[in-house]
Write a structure and sequence with these properties.
This protein has 213 residues and is an alpha/beta fold. The protein has 8 helices and 7 strands; from the N terminus they run βαααααβαββαβαββ. The protein has a 7-stranded mixed β-sheet with strand order 4-3-2-1-5-6-7. Helix 2 (37-48) packs antiparallel against helix 3 (54-61). The radius of gyration is 17 Å and the shape is globular.
Length: 213
């Protein structure tokens, strides 16, 4: 049986939120995209005040991508990874991946962020699988819709088991690890024998908090 080391991404392996970082990077590349700022940040505000769901907020926030062809986007996210994304990792997160990989663990990154740029995390040689929120592209352009569900909470567990079934993998969850900054990942944290919260202000009596830098 395989043993997994599962990591959330935003604020778990990174010091900042990746979607915001991607937006700011895109504005630096294409200043005219600043016209999408009111819509993107308005969506964030509406979500924060519970007027819209996280999924809808994410669809609105990513509206700045709709005019960029998928082929160009692939090149842009490569540059984003090299110049910005890869610069915001917690050193402790990468060191933990390396340590567990050497011990025979498969490294899975499971995040609510957009899979089309999270896939750049395969540049980390220890990473075996990246599972993020999928967005729909029609004729090469993002059409403003999420494919399936926002990859958050219970959905992360569903997506994980879909992948394990597709790859015909049996997992020893009792001896597996899960790292997250948030208790919204409690479904995944409860799935493994070794759950950890990263730099969390909220406590759970059953989960140890690690302070990563």
């Amino acid at each position: 049986m395989e043993k997994l080391a599962i990591f959330d991404v935003d604020y778990t392996i990174t010091k900042r939120e990746t979607l915001f970082e991607f937006f700011m990077f895109m504005i630096s590349k294409k200043p005219k995209l600043i016209i999408y700022m009111p819509k993107s940040f308005g969506a964030s505000l509406l979500y924060a005040t519970k007027f819209i769901s996280a999924a809808r907020a994410k669809e609105y926030f990513l509206s700045f991508v709709t005019k960029i062809h998928e082929d160009e986007l692939k090149e842009v996210v490569k540059e984003f990874y090299e110049k910005r994304f890869s610069k915001i990792f917690y050193t402790d997160a990468i060191d933990t991946m390396k340590k567990l990989k050497k011990q025979g663990y498969k490294i899975y990154l499971i995040s609510a962020s957009a899979e089309f740029y999270l896939n750049e995390l395969y540049n980390i040689k220890e990473v075996d699988k990246v599972i993020g929120t999928r967005f729909e592209f029609v004729d090469g352009y993002y059409n403003g819709k999420i494919v399936g569900e926002n990859n958050k909470g219970e959905e992360k567990v569903k997506r994980l088991f879909q992948v394990l079934k597709e790859e015909n993998l049996d997992v020893d969850f009792k001896n597996s690890y899960m790292y997250s900054d948030s208790l919204t990942d409690l479904p995944l944290l409860k799935l493994v024998g070794h759950p950890y919260l990263i730099n969390s202000r909220k406590k759970n009596n059953n989960i140890e908090i690690l302070n990563w830098k």
